[in-house]
Design a protein that fits this description.
mainly alpha; 11 helices; about 70% helix
Length: about 190
């Protein structure tokens, strides 16, 4: 068991890389201090729960799938979409297989199943999770736009065109209407 404990601990350290890896698309767009992959995954996971609840799917499952959706980037890094036109990365399921190969079977199976379900996009929860990924991108693009980064329309358009669930499309439309700090004025007015 000590080898598996060593390997499991190593995997947990590996996942920590996502806190340091920046989202490269934002760097290419000129955002000087872009969010990390882990930052993105956290809010995307929250969004997945919200979307799943709105869609009548299982929020916990959708959140769980979203939690793992970019875990492969510890090994591939965050490959920008432009780069994907010239370089292909291994499928996420294959990267995950290598990441979890030395972990206890129960842990490896849990992670591999979540990644496979997310990538297949056949369950309602996986569709909510995938939409959460895109909706988080849209929200982040709106925030960066409001903060003075004007050339992010391609990011917004890409996210909007990828949304599949009705709840995600409705939230995206509202996000496009309001500024990223509008909620503060509302909270101050309500005294909460």
């Amino acid at each position: 068991m000590s080898g598996q404990l060593r390997d499991t601990t190593g995997f947990l350290y590996e996942i920590g890389l996502l806190k340091r890896y920046k989202r490269t698309g934002w760097t290419m767009a000129g955002v000087p201090l872009p969010e990390s992959v882990a930052d993105h995954c956290f809010r995307a996971s929250v969004i997945a729960a919200v979307l799943a609840a709105m869609e009548g799917a299982d929020p916990q499952r959708a959140t769980f799938l979203t939690l793992w959706h970019d875990s492969q980037e510890t090994r591939t890094t965050d490959i920008p979409h432009l780069t994907k036109n010239y370089v292909s990365a291994a499928r996420n399921e294959l990267v995950t297989r290598d990441q979890v190969a030395s972990l206890p079977l129960s842990v490896a199976g849990m992670i591999s199943a979540a990644v496979a379900e997310y990538e297949a996009a056949e369950t309602h929860e996986a569709r909510c999770a995938r939409d959460a990924d895109k909706l988080e991108l849209l929200l982040q693009a709106r925030e960066y736009t409001d903060q003075g980064h004007p050339s992010l329309r391609p990011f917004l358009d890409s996210a909007l065109s990828a949304l599949r669930t009705e709840a995600a499309r409705e939230l995206a439309a509202e996000a496009m209407r309001q500024g990223y700090l509008d909620w503060v004025a509302s909270a101050m007015k309500d005294g909460t």
